[in-house]
Design brief:
This protein is α+β, with helices and mostly antiparallel strands. The chain is built from five helices and three strands. Helix 1 crosses helix 3.
């Protein structure tokens, strides 16, 4: 169990360090500004999965991933200077689609709520009668 907590702690340190390195900037024009949403480190601390979203939803995700992949060595070298570990984990980069899915779900719920309000506005008398509420 302590290994799990250690991997979580290391993931947090890697996330903060990568965010700092990326804020300082990469020379690759494919890597547009992005937000690191989550870093998951395996229990043996050898692999780190970095999830991100392009800042403001802009930028081509495939191009950003290609840019990050080509800068992997640079990023790992900088990580080794900022995060003290015996081995710096291999980095893999993935577009975080959870935010998009959450926004789609929110939009769906908003549409359903709006449809219910319209329906309830028309059937208000029937709804009140069904609930036993008198006006």
């Amino acid at each position: 169990m302590s290994d799990h907590k250690r991997s979580d702690r290391v993931a947090g340190e890697i996330s903060a360090a990568l965010a700092s390195i990326l804020r300082e900037g990469l020379r690759d024009p494919r890597v547009t500004p992005l937000t690191i949403t989550q870093v998951h480190v395996t229990e043996d601390l050898r692999l780190a999965r970095v999830n991100f979203v392009p800042l403001g939803g802009q930028g081509d995700a495939d191009a950003i991933i290609a840019g990050l992949e080509s800068a992997r060595g640079y990023l790992r070298r900088n990580l080794s200077q900022r995060v003290r570990l015996k081995y710096v984990p291999e980095l893999t980069f993935h577009l975080d689609v959870k935010l998009d899915e959450a926004m789609e779900l929110t939009a769906l719920l908003d549409r359903l709520t709006a449809a219910r309000v319209v329906r309830d506005g028309v059937d208000q008398d029937e709804a009140a009668a069904a609930e036993g509420v008198e006006e």
